[in-house]
Prior knowledge:
Elements: E1 43-47, E2 50-53, E3 58-61, H1 64-67, H2 76-88, H3 100-113, E4 119-123, H4 126-143, E5 151-156, H5 164-167, H6 176-179, E6 187-190, H7 203-221, E7 226-231, H8 246-259, E8 262-267, E9 291-294, E10 306-310, H9 312-321, H10 334-350, H11 352-373, E11 377-383, E12 386-391, H12 407-417, E13 420-421, E14 423-426, E15 434-438, H13 446-469
Helix pairs in contact: 2-10, 3-10, 7-8, 11-13, 12-13
Amino acid sequence: MTTHLQSPQGPGAGRSERTTVLPPGGGQTAFYAKSNMVPLPVIDRGSGIYLWDEDDRRYIDVSSGPVVSSIGHGNARVADAMASQAKRLEYAFARLARNRVNIDYSERLARLAGPGFERVNLTSGGSEAVENAIKFLRQYAIATGKPSKRQIITCEPSYHGATIATLAMNGEVALAPFLDGFATTSHKVPAPLSYRVPDDHSIGSYARHCAAALDAKIAELGAENVLAFVIEPVGGLSTGCVVPPAEYIHAIREICTSRGVHLVFDEILCGMGRTGKFLAAHHWPEALPDIVTMAKGLASGYSPLGAMLAPADMVDELSELTGFEFQYSYNANPVSSAVGMAVLDEYEGLDLVARAVERGTQLRSGLEALQSSLPILGDIRGLGMLLAVELVADKKTKVSLPSDLLPADRIRIHGLRNGLMIYSRPTSGGKYGHWFIVSPPLTISEEECEDLLRRLGKTLSDLVAELRDMGTL
Ligand SMILES: Cc1ncc(COP(=O)(O)O)c(C=O)c1O
């Protein structure tokens, strides 16, 4: 909604045309690129898998926002838990006091994560959790006599957050001018992609190549200088839900162990049951990482919440030595902890991890049916109810749709017209393809899945028709 106001007086007055059409503040979207052609509906309310805008148009939340809203919208039990915690105790600073709900929530999370993840450090979101993992490992290295360990290795492509330190870890070539001379970037190794593998490779041989590249990178940097390898064990917004072969996970675990490098699984997006296990790491129990980070589904959008999970022996050792001396004002916030508890109640009561498998299977077979009838669905991939659909110009050659046509934006526009809110994204300006994510709330019913698939079929047919009109297909 734009409001026509007079230009504000003061130092910034007249700097831009937009100051005359946006109200003061402008909302978060005032900061986004002006050229964004996709409408951003003003959402008024939500219930279950649905969101309604101010004009009462209803949308299915196809991707749970950016894979956040795992228990769906408008859950009164969670809202009540939040309100009653806020009335009882809204805040107690973790450096000065402990609070019961934080203690209980940490214990419950650690039990679900299982052996190796006994200590829980809460944050206000995913980027903070990844930063805490890195800060924790760096402080542990210094405290245990390994101060040269400061290099971080991540994948190209990858996404780990939007703070300056995590931006510098992301495998996103488009960020180079922003980061150049501004932040210390991580070292990159190729991500084990499954669809766009180089011509002379199979998925398996490429995964072996990627693991060997990690080993070579550690050798090049000197293992004594490498702090950690950070990876999304199942991809999200950067790779479009790439699932590496098990042998890759086993190989990177072995490499990190033998080289004395910490392995961090960034499960901000793929954790919390999305892939059909509580942690994605539980798919490979014999190759568990040293540290796991989580967020998104933890509070399912009801409150800002993230977590860094670490083994008791490391945390307790550091605690004896120097302690992990960094905190935010909102660590261990009682209201967020109460939300986390109430979300876990929903997970257990509704058996949402099992439903991720059940409904995920239904959605995947529906998407595969669409793939066989539509010319632009190049790849369907993912695990559980974390699925991505890659759009291509030609299924046989895998040639991408032209980036300047903004295919990821077009699918969103057609989706909105068909009552779907879809998260879509190209990484690195389309270098790794264009895709959208199908990851609705885990609470979605069988009938709602059918409705979602029907609307998606229409959305994709509309996109195909548009591309044909434009002469692209
Ligand atoms: C894998 C991964 N790591 C980290 C983040 C950053 O989380 P947040 O946006 O909560 O800071 C994200 C967000 O999309 C993510 O997908």
